[in-house]
């Protein structure tokens, strides 16, 4: 009996200590959306359960290992106890009840997280290797930075150009894969203004790590102002247009403009220079070569760079867009 | 030279090279006859790799006995190989003990290779920016680390099951010794094909190989698919053998509830690998065919669906986790009574909980796909079924702590690893429910939290019990004990380092670090965490290095241990070590309960004539 009492007290103490430790360990990023509030409440329930169950098993285990260890000079075996059906029933039924409770709060929280607001801001998200594109059908804007008004639900309708990607802003907690050939939905209500990053969470190829995009949460006034500037700056100059496009389509993830080494060749001084190819030949980087490198990137790979890393942009870009990008690359001579 | 060529392994490897060349040549010939361009790398290399694997098995001689049987010639039923010495470890042996040790060595080789991959990419992660790896190289190493380790685990559990099961149930060998040899040897060319992916452009998909990414990946991807599909035969055929052996070859008096508890775990594991492994082979073959023949199973443009792959893949790959851990949990239940000197608490409940986990394990695969875009209503039933796994798992934990309660506990090296296994598996178990409830999982999925969680379950459920089992049964294999000091050094190098490693993984995952990234945002300030994780990684490697040195050294120089050194009731310890060629010279009969420690005068088995 004495052993049980000591163990009970130790389990209680340990539970509080573990919970205190976990609660103050700074385990979560900022809580910046309505959905995050519900999710973090559920996390708190989990942390309490973890603290208790961890203490229960570890305290009894280590108490036994210390107190019931074989002392010097002792011989013989331990107590002959083969089992106890009542105990077995108790530690089957109580976990079942905990499971039912977790199932209930789990479903409840999911319901809250998936609450649909009819007046949500519509944004169409297109993901590709390796870029994010956001289109606002209500305002006819397309950008590569996601601007969101504060405290208004945004309905992200997402699809992928190539492989599976995943939309995740850690501060918003929720995550949704983006699948080619279908549209997935994610709803977020940002509650704290500031800059965040959307990070692709599903391995999507070589530059997966760099598939990040800016998410800026601003108040309604600033949002309206941003919409106005976006609408008025439809760029005509092909070089500037090209510069926009290379950012938008993530070309700059792999190609630098300052001569530094990234996954692909730099664009600095590229146009009209002599380029050594993987096969041993070389070619002049004229307009025709630049165009074909965008449309059929694996045809003439530059020496020293891996092939089949860059996806083809044949179905993604139209002719004027390709020409604008080439014009931009040529401007970096 | 002649001696080297007489080794089955060497012959097999030479034949594999020949077979690969022949396969490639055959594809080129067919293309020539069809008036196509002669050289196309992908079909040629895939077919060549397949024929290479088959040639390996032929050259090795795995089919020899079956061929003779088919020709109506006589084969020796139970050949005595004891005169061959060490050579029989390098060729086809029908002795389950030899095959068990072959499995063990292969598991350790694969484990070392997978571990070295991890050390390489962990070193890359110390600093932000790419230091000495390209991103493709990083992704290849990271993906191969996953799959090589998974195969090493499957091979490792096969090692323990093959070596111990006939001994524990009193059989002279497995039910199908030739199939047993086949199951082992196919893992060797499969592993080589898997590793050859590195030389063929690598692949960048992770071990999950999700299309469409895997459809676009370099040629190395196909070697990955083919290697895994072939290695699957090890699991499928191995489990047939184990189930048949347990059902048919038990000693007299060994009724189901008098079997050693590890046997129950082996039954549960084998039931899963017998029925689910096909699905990972199938899903990988479908992607292979999509790449080779343009079949659009997972291509939305052709009416396919990328998410279908994930269903097929996880229908195996979730139960597979229980394939990895159930034998380990069985080892914990098997060894705890020996070192606590007390009966296993609630034997029947522990036995049934293994079957319960195996059963529920088949119904939970969707929890890997909560964020995948599968039909939304499916998330709720998968949440319920997943939470249910906690119940039978809980029964095991409660039984373990009740087993040590009021024992007379000693702490030799196997027991140290058992204790670490219980605590680490507890951490893995307790971090499971947050992944089961959908809303919290939407934050956790595809982050380092998951990485930490499954490293905990696999170290607690496989790695530590595997170490314990090797320390425990090594004297049975060799007649010598593993060195105690080196064993303790191994334990103290690995265990604290692993706790730090997995805890940090979970922490940075919660704070926003995604899985499988070759580089990370310096603004998140996780450089020091990554540095500490890399150091712990090297400490673990050092510990495993000490373990391997101990294994090699003690085989010759270890302390002699031919008797019942653990004072166990189990039959294999009632006869001198090492075990003779065909196990027990006299059959035994089960006359008591397996774990009645503390009951004076009771025995588990009685040998004939005693």
Question: Which percent band covers the strand fraction of chain A?
Answer: 15-25%
Give the domain tally of chain A. Answer: 3
How far apart the termini of chain B lie comes to 50 Å
> What is the name of the CATH topology of the largest domain in chain A?
Immunoglobulin-like
β-strand number of chain A: 12
Q: How large, in whole angstroms, is the Cα Rg of chain B?
A: 24 Å
What is the number of beta strands of chain B? 2
The SSE order of chain B reads HHHHHHHHHHHHHHHHHHHHEE
Poorly predicted regions of chain B: none
Q: Main β-sheet of chain B, in a few words? A: 2 strands, antiparallel
Question: Could you explain how this protein is built, in words?
Answer:
- The complex is a heterodimer of chains A (333) and B (610).
- Chain A has 3 domains: 2-65 and 85-113; 121-232, Immunoglobulin-like (Sandwich); 238-330, Cytochrome c-like domain (Cytochrome Bc1 Complex, Chain D, domain 2).
- In chain A, 39% of the residues lie in helices and 18% in strands.
- Chain A has helices at residues 2-23, 34-67, 85-113, 220-232, 238-248, 287-295, 319-330, and strands spanning 121-128, 131-136, 141-143, 146-149, 154-160, 165-168, 175-178, 184-188, 194-199, 212-218, 274-276, 282-284.
- In chain A, the strands form 4 sheets. A 5-stranded mixed β-sheet of chain A has the order 3-2-1-5-8. Chain A has a 3-stranded mixed β-sheet with strand order 4-10-9. Chain A has a two-stranded antiparallel ribbon with strand order 6-7.
- In chain A, helix 1 packs antiparallel against helix 2 and helix 2 runs antiparallel to helix 3.
- The longest helix of chain A has 34 residues, at 34-67.
- Chain A starts with a helix and ends with a helix.
- Chain B folds into 2 domains: 18-71, no CATH class; 100-607, Cytochrome C Oxidase, Chain A (Up-down Bundle), CATH 1.20.210.10.
- Chain B has helices spanning 2-5, 8-33, 41-60, 64-70, 96-124, 135-169, 177-196, 213-216, 220-248, 261-293, 306-340, 347-361, 379-388, 390-404, 413-430, 433-436, 438-444, 448-478, 484-510, 527-557, and strands spanning 588-590, 605-607.
- In chain B, strands 1-2 form a two-stranded antiparallel sheet.
- In chain B, helix 5 (96-124) runs antiparallel to helix 6, helix 5 runs antiparallel to helix 20 and helix 6 (135-169) runs parallel beside helix 9 (220-248).
- The chains are: A alpha+beta (333), B mainly alpha (610).
């Amino acid at each position: 009996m004495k052993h049980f009492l000591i163990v009970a007290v130790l389990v209680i103490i340990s539970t509080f200590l573990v919970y205190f430790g976990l609660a103050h360990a700074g385990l979560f990023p900022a809580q910046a959306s309505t959905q995050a509030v519900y999710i973090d409440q559920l996390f708190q329930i989990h942390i309490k359960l973890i603290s208790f169950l961890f203490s229960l098993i570890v305290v009894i285990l280590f108490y036994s290992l210390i107190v019931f260890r074989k002392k010097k000079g002792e011989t013989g075996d331990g107590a002959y106890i083969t089992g106890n059906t009542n105990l077995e029933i108790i530690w089957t039924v109580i976990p079942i009840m905990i499971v039912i409770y977790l199932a209930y709060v789990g479903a409840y929280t999911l319901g809250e997280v998936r609450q649909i607001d009819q007046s949500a801001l519509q944004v169409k998200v297109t993901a590709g290797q390796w870029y994010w594109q956001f289109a606002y059908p209500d305002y006819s804007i397309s950008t590569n930075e996601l601007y969101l008004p504060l405290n208004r639900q945004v309905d992200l309708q997402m699809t992928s150009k190539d492989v599976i990607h995943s939309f995740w802003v850690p501060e918003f907690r929720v995550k949704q894969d983006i699948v080619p050939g279908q549209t997935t939905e994610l709803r977020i209500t940002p509650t704290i203004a500031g800059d965040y990053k959307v990070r692709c969470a599903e391995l999507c190829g070589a530059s997966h790590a760099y598939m990040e995009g800016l998410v800026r949460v601003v108040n309604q006034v600033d949002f309206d102002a941003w919409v106005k500037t976006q609408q008025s700056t439809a760029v005509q100059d092909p070089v500037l247009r090209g510069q926009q496009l290379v950012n938008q389509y993530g070309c700059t993830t792999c190609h630098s403009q300052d001569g530094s080494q990234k996954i692909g060749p730099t664009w600095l001084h590229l146009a009209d220079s002599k380029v050594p190819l993987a096969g041993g030949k070389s070619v002049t980087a004229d307009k025709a070569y630049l165009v074909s490198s965008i449309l059929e990137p694996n045809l003439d790979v530059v020496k020293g760079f891996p092939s089949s890393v860059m996806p083809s942009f044949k179905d993604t870009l139209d002719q004027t867009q390709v020409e604008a990008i080439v014009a931009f690359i040529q401007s970096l001579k | 030279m002649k001696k080297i060529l007489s080794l089955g392994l060497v012959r097999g490897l030479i034949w594999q090279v020949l077979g690969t060349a022949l396969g490639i040549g055959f594809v080129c010939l067919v293309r020539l006859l069809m008036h196509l361009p002669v050289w196309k790398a992908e079909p040629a290399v895939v077919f060549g790799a397949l024929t290479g694997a088959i040639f390996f098995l032929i050259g090795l001689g795995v089919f020899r006995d079956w061929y003779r049987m088919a020709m109506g010639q006589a084969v020796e039923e139970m050949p005595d190989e004891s005169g061959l010495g060490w050579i029989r470890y390098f060729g086809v042996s029908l002795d389950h003990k030899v095959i068990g040790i072959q499995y063990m060595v292969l598991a350790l080789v694969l484990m070392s290779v997978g571990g070295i991959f991890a050390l390489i990419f962990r070193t890359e992660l110390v600093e932000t920016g790419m230091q000495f790896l390209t991103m493709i190289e990083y992704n290849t190493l990271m993906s191969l680390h996953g799959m090589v380790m998974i195969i090493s685990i499957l091979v490792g559990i096969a090692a323990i099951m093959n070596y111990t099961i006939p001994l524990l149930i009193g059989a002279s060998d497995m039910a199908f010794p030739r199939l047993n040899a086949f199951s082992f040897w196919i893992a060797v060319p499969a592993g080589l094909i898997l590793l050859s992916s590195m030389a063929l452009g690598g692949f960048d998909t992770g071990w999950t190989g999700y299309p469409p990414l895997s459809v676009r990946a370099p040629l190395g991807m196909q070697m990955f698919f083919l290697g895994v599909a072939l290695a699957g035969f090890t699991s499928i055929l191995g489990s047939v053998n184990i189930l048949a052996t347990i059902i048919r070859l038990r000693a007299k008096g060994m009724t189901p509830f008098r079997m050693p508890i590890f046997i129950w775990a082996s039954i549960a594991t084998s039931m899963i690998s017998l029925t689910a492994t096909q699905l990972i082979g199938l899903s990988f073959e479908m992607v292979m065919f999509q790449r080779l023949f343009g079949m659009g199973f997972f291509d939305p443009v052709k009416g396919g669906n990328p998410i279908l792959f994930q269903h097929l893949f996880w229908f195996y790959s979730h139960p597979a986790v229980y394939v990895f851990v159930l034998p380990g949990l069985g080892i914990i239940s098997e060894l705890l009574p020996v070192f606590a000197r007390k009966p296993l608490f609630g034997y029947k409940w522990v036995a049934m909980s293994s079957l319960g986990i195996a059963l529920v394990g088949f119904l939970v695969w969707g929890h890997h796909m909560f964020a995948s875009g599968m039909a939304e209503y499916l998330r709720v039933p998968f949440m319920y079924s997943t939470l249910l796994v906690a119940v039978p798992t809980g029964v095991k934990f409660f039984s373990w702590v009740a087993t040590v309660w009021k024992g007379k506990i000693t702490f030799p090296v196997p027991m140290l690893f058992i204790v670490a296994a219980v605590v680490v598996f507890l951490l893995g178990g307790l971090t499971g429910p947050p992944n089961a409830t959908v809303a919290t999982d939407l934050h956790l999925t595809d982050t380092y939290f998951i990485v930490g969680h499954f490293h905990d379950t696999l170290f607690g459920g496989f790695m530590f019990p595997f170490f314990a089992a090797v320390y425990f049964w090594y004297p049975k294999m060799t007649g010598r004990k593993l060195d105690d000091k080196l064993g303790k050094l191994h334990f103290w190098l690995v265990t604290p380092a692993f706790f730090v490693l997995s805890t940090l993984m979970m922490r940075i995952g919660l704070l926003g670090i995604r899985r499988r990234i070759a580089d990370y945002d310096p603004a998140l300030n996780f450089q020091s965490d990554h540095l500490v994780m890399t150091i712990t990684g090297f400490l673990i490697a050092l510990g495993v290095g000490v373990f391997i040195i101990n294994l090699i050294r003690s085989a010759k120089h270890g302390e002699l241990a031919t008797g019942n050194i653990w004072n166990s009731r189990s039959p294999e310890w009632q006869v001198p070590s090492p075990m003779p060629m065909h196990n027990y010279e006299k059959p035994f009969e089960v006359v008591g309960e397996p774990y009645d420690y503390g009951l004076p005068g009771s025995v588990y088995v009685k040998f004939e004539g005693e």
